[in-house]
């Protein structure tokens, strides 16, 4: 197997931006993998516990959410629950707004991945063209036997740069699709748990309203008794 340094040198000038793209892609992939592993490990279990707790004790559920404020769903729930006296419709709007605010963090670096995937093959194609130009220039000099190294070097540059561009693009595309799938699953989970929280909130709101009406009726009855 050839020395990687020789292969890199054979690819020509476009190998340098491809190297930068590959390192950037690797750094972004590691960051996203750490993010999704931590999120998937904790969020579902934590939010299931919060929903069970909220059914019986909203105050305790609110306190537990504050302990998990690093989770997107916890921040979404807190944003809506901190609106005092919100009607079910207002609560729904608050949840929707908080969810929209969290989506950019879940889609983080998607533009960077798309750029690397799109530009890397083009850089490889540019290397192919530059290599072929070098080869044809050597052929036009007339003496093929004396310019063999230049011709083969140009062909080598064309092939290596193309292969390098495709490797960077394909590797990045595989992980970008993985992260896109994780994002869609997370979005579905947020919508599911947000819907469950809305149902519980409506139940508590109805209970509060019924209690307030009963208290008002009791006060009115007492006033009528006093007057009589």
**Main pleated sheet:** none
Instruction: Output mean pLDDT.
Output: 85
Q: What is the terminal-to-terminal distance? A: 105 Å
State the total count of DSSP E strands: 0
Structural class: mainly alpha
- Number of domains in the coordinates? 1
Low-confidence regions: none
Helix count, DSSP H or I runs of 4 or more residues: 7
Rough outline: rod-shaped
Overall description:
The chain has one domain. Helices cover 87% and strands 0% of the residues. It is built from seven helices and no strands. Helix 1 packs across helix 7, helix 2 runs parallel beside helix 7 and helix 6 runs antiparallel to helix 7. The termini are far apart.
Would you kindly provide a brief summary of this structure?
This protein is mainly alpha-helical. The protein has 7 helices and no strands. The N and C termini lie far apart (105 Å).
Q: What labels describe this entry?
A:
single chain; 228 residues; mainly alpha; 7 helices; 87% helix; rod-shaped
How does the SSE layout of this entry go?
Blueprint: H1 4-10, H2 15-56, H3 58-67, H4 72-81, H5 88-106, H6 110-140, H7 148-227
Helix pairs in contact: 1-7, 2-3, 2-6, 2-7, 4-5, 5-7, 6-7
């Amino acid at each position: 197997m050839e020395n990687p340094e020789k292969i890199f040198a054979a690819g020509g000038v476009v190998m340098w931006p491809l190297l930068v793209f590959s390192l950037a892609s690797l750094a972004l992939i590691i960051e996203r993998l750490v993010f999704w592993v931590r999120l998937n490990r904790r969020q579902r279990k934590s939010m299931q516990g919060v929903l069970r707790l909220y059914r019986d004790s909203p105050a305790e559920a609110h306190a537990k959410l504050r302990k998990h404020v690093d989770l997107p769903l916890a921040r979404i729930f807190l944003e809506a629950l901190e609106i005092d006296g919100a009607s079910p419709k207002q609560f729904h709007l608050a949840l929707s707004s908080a969810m929209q605010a969290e989506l950019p963090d879940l889609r983080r670096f998607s533009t960077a991945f798309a750029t690397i995937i799109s530009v890397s093959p083009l850089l490889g194609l540019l290397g192919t063209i530059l290599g072929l130009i070098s080869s044809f220039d050597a052929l036009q000099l007339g003496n093929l036997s004396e310019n063999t190294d230049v011709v083969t070097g140009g062909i080598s540059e064309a092939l290596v740069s193309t292969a390098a561009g495709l490797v960077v693009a394909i590797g990045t595309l595989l992980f970008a699709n993985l992260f896109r799938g994780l994002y869609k699953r997370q979005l579905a989970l947020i919508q599911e748990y947000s819907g469950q929280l809305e149902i519980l909130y409506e139940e508590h709101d109805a209970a509060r309203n019924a209690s307030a009406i009963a208290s008002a009726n009791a006060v009115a009855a007492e006033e009528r008794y006093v007057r009589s």
